[in-house]
What does this fold into?
Amino acid sequence: MGHRHPADMHLLSLILLIAPLAAAAEKFEALHHLGGNSPWFPGPEIDNLGTADSIPAGCTVTKAIYISRHGSRYPDPGAWKEWQALYTKLNSASFTARGALSFLPTWSPVLQHPSQDLAQLSLTGYTELATLGALLRFRYPDFYTPNTPFSVFANAVQRTTDSARLFARGYGGPNATSLGTVHVVNASHPGALADSLAPSDLCENYSDDSATATAAWDARYLPPITARLQRLIRGDLNLTDAETALMPYLCGFETQITGHRSPWCKVFTDHEITQYEYRQDLRYWYGTGPGSGLAGTMMLPVLAQVSEILENGQGRNLTVAFTHDGQINQLASVAGVFDGHRNLTTDRIMQDRTYRASRIVPMRGTVAWEKMSCTGKDKGEFVRVLLNDAVYPVTGCRGGPGGSCPLEEYKRIVERKVVKAGEFNERCGNEGNSTEPKDGEGFLLKPGGKAWVSTVAP
Ligand SMILES: *[C@@H]1O[C@H](CO)[C@@H](O)[C@H](O)[C@H]1NC(C)=O
Ligand SMILES: *[C@@H]1O[C@H](CO)[C@@H](O)[C@H](O)[C@H]1NC(C)=O
Ligand SMILES: *[C@@H]1O[C@H](CO)[C@@H](O)[C@H](O)[C@H]1NC(C)=O
Ligand SMILES: *[C@@H]1O[C@H](CO)[C@@H](O)[C@H](O)[C@H]1NC(C)=O
Ligand SMILES: *[C@@H]1O[C@H](CO)[C@@H](O)[C@H](O)[C@H]1NC(C)=O
Ligand SMILES: *[C@@H]1O[C@H](CO)[C@@H](O)[C@H](O)[C@H]1NC(C)=O
Ligand SMILES: *[C@@H]1O[C@H](CO)[C@@H](O)[C@H](O)[C@H]1NC(C)=O
It folds into this structure.
């Protein structure tokens, strides 16, 4: 048996229920199909392999690593400009709208204090992070002795640092006298490569370019939706495809910002939402994912540290770090769970894909590794990879309990990837420096004593 107490399931369900956006599982839920624009939700099970809460019989989780996107946030300045432009256009047009668009004439952007809020965590983000902290205490009750020091890691951007601080508060609990230390690394510092949670910042040849794939798909899926919506409008207002593409984005953001379901969530049909979702898949697959070449290799130095932490019997039981959607996608893409996945098609939805951005990079999207120690017929040490709490099998290495991969084999898979990709500075066309982490020296293993690392209190 795993170490989970029966009562924990009950507590976990309670926590999920108080999250403002909990939704019925069976019904199509638009908020679970918005790619990087969804608030957090647990991923559905893959191949019936279960979730973080189903630990294979005879196994105990002895170590866990969670690397997460920051929590739900307000729009960034670029998106905010688009919301305002849409508002200005609607406000200066003379029209009526019916059906799902009848709210259009009275719509205005939901941000109350843009100068303070842009790109920062929202209240839903706050809930997601504090909840994650409490959830991991429940999930791994033996990992932590109350009021003892612990470390959390973050990329040095306000929303990721805040995510780490809020996580630490949730993990420490309301009466904690020791709330841990948040180690923050400045990814733009020229010396930071070996410690970076966003190595692409130091890669000269880096480019995140999915434009060919997304333009092809946009040209296919958007015009019929725009035409359908246009028929709901009478008067002097013509929607553009770019405005149509903004609507599901507004659904996700407005809902998590206000805590109430946005009227934009009803504008697309379920089928149209799945087309929008696929657009996000193409954007991440070809931008920073398995179909992207160089960009997709950026997080290998971090994966190498993950492998080292899993292998090394000493040290921390729980490692938690916060970074951004591109990095989470890069990490999920090299973790072994999408190896051999076919390139996504750009002329139709690839229905049988396991790669879905919504299940990888929603707000607070998390890639996790658990090391399991098992007895009985499967005696030994195993690794399982989880994307947002759903177990994903490692391609070609799923013979262990619950579809897990033997630890030694996972280590070799990671080593092969690192060797195949080659030296970071070389593939990036960087001049001079070679500062990839040496064994035992990377940020997640040894954060201290570096000019580009600082600490903040939770
Ligand atoms: C790690 O977890 C084990 C139990 O799994 C526990 O005995 C040990 O004290 C933990 N270490 C820390 C630093 O909390
Ligand atoms: C809270 O912490 C203080 C100091 O560590 C302790 O005296 C007190 O009993 C704790 N209260 C609860 C409810 O755990
Ligand atoms: C990060 O490092 C860069 C380059 O050294 C520097 O310009 C920047 O101010 C640093 N940022 C932070 C948040 O310390
Ligand atoms: C090489 O890295 C060092 C820090 O390790 C930094 O000071 C220097 O500017 C870097 N040089 C180049 C050419 O990037
Ligand atoms: C909307 O499109 C119609 C048909 O193309 C055109 O006649 C009309 O002038 C356009 N209205 C605006 C406000 O652009
Ligand atoms: C997938 O697409 C990328 C980008 O077009 C290409 O470089 C790569 O070779 C393709 N991979 C396969 C397996 O076809
Ligand atoms: C890096 O980019 C430069 C300029 O685009 C190019 O000449 C060089 O071949 C690239 N290096 C690698 C390793 O791709």
